[in-house]
Structure formats: C-alpha cells, structure tokens
Amino acid sequence: MKIDLTEITESVFEVQTITICQKFREAAIIYLEREPNEIDKSKLLKQTDALLFKFTLSVINLEFLWRISEKQSTEGRLAENEKFEWNNSNSIIDATFFESTIIQIRAFIDFAQKLACVTLGYNKQINGTKDFYKNLNKIGGSKSNLIKEKFSEMDKTWGKLIRSLRNKIVHYDLIKTNHEYRPTVKGKNYEVFAQELTNNMFLFLVDLCKLLFEIEWVSGTFNEFKKAYAR
C-alpha cells in the first residue's frame, strides 16, 4: 500500500488553513482589538495558534485514515490476523493514524481550556480538567459561567469518550483488531468513528469563536468572513 503523505497534508492545508483556521485566528485578532489591555495579547494569539495546530493535526490524521480505507477497499480483504498486534502489518497502519487522531483531539481539548482561561485574563498553568473548572469558579462572572457550561456539555458527551480512549491507548491497553476487513471501534470503522469525533471538534471550534471571542462564525471562504466584519 502506497499513499502520498505529502499530498494528503497539502490537500488538508488548502481547506483547513485557508478557511477554518484563518477565520478562527482572525476572530481572535478582532477580539483583541476590541478588548481592554488586561488581556495578554501575545499569549492569546500564541494559544490560539497552538489550538489550531492540534486541530490541523487531527484533520490530517483523519484524512490518512480515509485514504487507507480507500486503498484497502480496492485491494480486497485484509490478511489473516497475526498472533501479535505489533506483527499485524494491516492493523498497525490503521492504528498508527487512529491513535494519533485520538491523542491530538484530546490535546485540542486541553489547549481549548487554556485558551478559554487566557480570554478571561488567567495566564497561569492549568493542571488538568479539574483545575480548569476550579479556576473558572474562582474567576466567576457571566462569561466564565458560559464557558463552564459549554465545556461541561462537551465533557459529558464526546469529550468523555475521547478521554476514555486516550487513557486506554496511552496507559492501559490496545484497541485490538479482531476482524477480517477493516478495524472497528464501537462497531464503526476507524475512519468513520474518527470522522464523527472530528466533526464534533469542528462544531466545538465554531462555538468557541462565539464564546471566547464574541464573534459569530461566518460560513464560506476566509474572504467572506473578512467582508462580514469589514476587514
């Protein structure tokens, strides 16, 4: 199986960088232009860029999974499962990009927490999700409460699933491939499962644009976004 990784990365850049990521970053810049000086502008942009980096890595890994799926579907059924997962050349290709997708989306959530705190004027280190909510309670105010509500909603749904899978992958066990055709998790092929999680991540990013930067998301191109805000 041969897949051009550079071509995949460039195709993702054409969509993610020019549209989604640039719009989100521009929203951060607009927010900083409107906000008083107590917001650490350089730190907010740095954290915004870090969040978008994790978003892009997740999407690139997802695209790899789809290309692998397309390639394997044209080559017929997978070979017989090997005795050891580290010796299963078929499943290990999928696992490489699936596990990376899960880890990057989990990192995306962590980075989103940090960005949320920066927009509230809190620039200290955050030590995990519990510390994040503890800091939100200390900060208080309507914006802090809205952030807490949105993150809690996410943490109880797809965020909880991401944490569970990430902890299993990193600390406890393998996601074993025990089938003949395509790897699955919760009855769904890796690429389909990862696509649903990535869709949730994108919708969360759109929500963050409004919640953190107080900027409504604009569908369409980056130029359409700028036009909507007279940029």
What is the gist of this entry?
The protein is mostly helical.
SSE diagram, text form:
Elements (H helix, E strand, L loop, with lengths): L4 H30 L6 H33 L15 H31 L9 H11 L2 H14 L2 H15 L11 E2 L2 E2 H24 L8 H7 L3
Antiparallel strand pairs: 1-2
Helix pairs in contact: 1-2, 1-7, 2-3, 2-7, 3-4, 3-6, 3-7, 4-5, 5-7
What does this structure look like?
- This is Cthe-2314-like HEPN domain-containing protein.
- It comes from Pseudozobellia thermophila.
- The structure is a single chain.
- With 231 residues, this protein is an all-alpha fold.
- It has one domain (5-228).
- Helices cover 71% and strands 2% of the residues.
- It is built from eight helices and two strands.
- The chain has helices spanning 5-34, 41-73, 89-119, 129-139, 142-155, 158-172, 190-213, 222-228, and strands spanning 184-185, 188-189.
- It has a two-stranded antiparallel sheet.
- A hairpin with a 2-residue loop joins strand 1 and strand 2 (188-189).
- Helix 1 runs antiparallel to helix 2, helix 3 (89-119) packs parallel to helix 4 and helix 3 (89-119) runs parallel beside helix 7 (190-213).
- The longest helix has 33 residues, at 41-73.
- The chain is globular, with a radius of gyration of 20 Å.
- The termini are far apart.
Please tag this protein with its features:
globular, Cthe-2314-like HEPN domain-containing protein, mainly alpha, 231 residues, 71% helix, two-stranded antiparallel sheet
